[in-house]
C-alpha cells in the first residue's frame, strides 16, 4: 500500500494541479494582454487569487492574478474596439470579420451595446443610398457571418449576437468595448475637474485618450446616419482633449502646453476653447503679446471659416489679458472651459454625463 500510495499521490497531485491551472487559464486576461493595440490604457489594480496544489496536496501556494469581472459561464472572452479601425479579439487572438457590410453591421450594433436595434435602423445605418429590395435578407446573411466570426453556439444560447423581434442585439460585457471604457474615463475625468482635482482629472483623461487609434470606425464606410453617430464619437475625443488640456493648465504646465496647443489650433482653427487655452498658457509664461496675437488669429479664423465673431468667453479672456487681470495667474475661473454656443462641445468644468456613445453631446 505504501508503494502504491507513493506512486498515486504524485499522479493525483499533478492532475489536481493541472485542473486548477486550467481553471486559472480560462479566467479573463487583463486588457493589456487581450488588446495589444490599447495596452496600458486601462490599468487594473487589485488582484484575485487562485490556488495551486503542491507537495502532495498538503500545502497551498497562492498565485496573484489581475482581477477583472468574469463573463457569465459559457460566454466567450471577447474584446471590441471602435476607437480606430474596427477590431475584435477572442481569447486574446484577433478575429477577422470578413466583408465590409458585416463589419458595418458590427459597428452599428456596437454603438448600441446590449440594446436591440431594429432592422429598419440597421438598414439606415448600413446603406449609404436607397437600400436594395433584398436588404432584410442581406442583413440576415451578414448577421450569420458575424455570428460565425464571433463564435459561440446560438442553439446553446452562447452566441453574443442575438436575434430579437424585428432586429438584433449584441451582448457586450463590462470593459469589453473600448468606447464604453473611454466614456467611463471621460465621465470620471470631468467629474474630477469639476471637483477641483486636476491631477486626478489628468490621469483619467489621459487613460481615456490612450484608447484611441484613429478616427472612430475608420475602416467602415459611413452612410449619412452612421456618419452622424460616428462624428459624435469623434467629437467626444475632442472634448476629452480639451478637458485634458484644461487639467494640465490647472497643474501649472504652461511651458509644456504651448507647443501642443499651437499644433492643435492649426489643426482645429475654429475651436475657441483651444485658442483660449493657448492664450492662457502664453500669458502665464509671460508672453503677453503672443497671447493677444493668438486672439487675433482666432478671430480671423472664425470670421473666414464660420462667418462669426468670437464668443463672449473668448472676448472676456482677451479683455482680461489686456487689463493684466491678476486672476489670470492661477484662478480656476480663468481656466477656459468649453464654449456652449452650438459650435463647440459641452462645458468641461460642469460635471455632467457625457453623451451616450454615438449620440451628439448637448451644449452645457
What report would you give on this structure?
This protein is mostly helical and about 375 residues long. The protein is built from twelve helices and eight strands. It has a three-stranded antiparallel β-sheet, with no helix packed on it. Strand 1 and strand 2 form a beta hairpin. Helix 6 runs antiparallel to helix 7, helix 6 runs parallel beside helix 8 and helix 10 packs parallel to helix 12. The longest helix is centred in the middle third of the chain and has 27 residues.
The computed structural class is mainly alpha
Shape: elongated
DSSP strand (E) fraction? 5-15%
Main beta sheet strand tally, sense and closure: 3 strands, antiparallel
Topology (elements, then pairings):
Blueprint: H1 2-25, H2 31-34, E1 47-54, E2 59-66, E3 78-81, E4 87-90, E5 93-95, H3 100-110, E6 117-118, H4 119-126, H5 135-150, E7 161-164, E8 167-170, H6 178-194, H7 198-209, H8 224-250, H9 254-267, H10 272-284, H11 288-306, H12 312-322
Antiparallel strand pairs: 1-2, 3-4, 4-5, 6-8, 7-8
Helix pairs in contact: 3-5, 6-7, 6-8, 7-8, 8-10, 9-10, 10-11, 10-12, 11-12
Kindly summarize this structure in a few lines:
The chain has 364 residues and is mainly alpha-helical.
Keywords:
disordered C terminus; three-stranded antiparallel β-sheet; elongated; mainly alpha; 364 residues
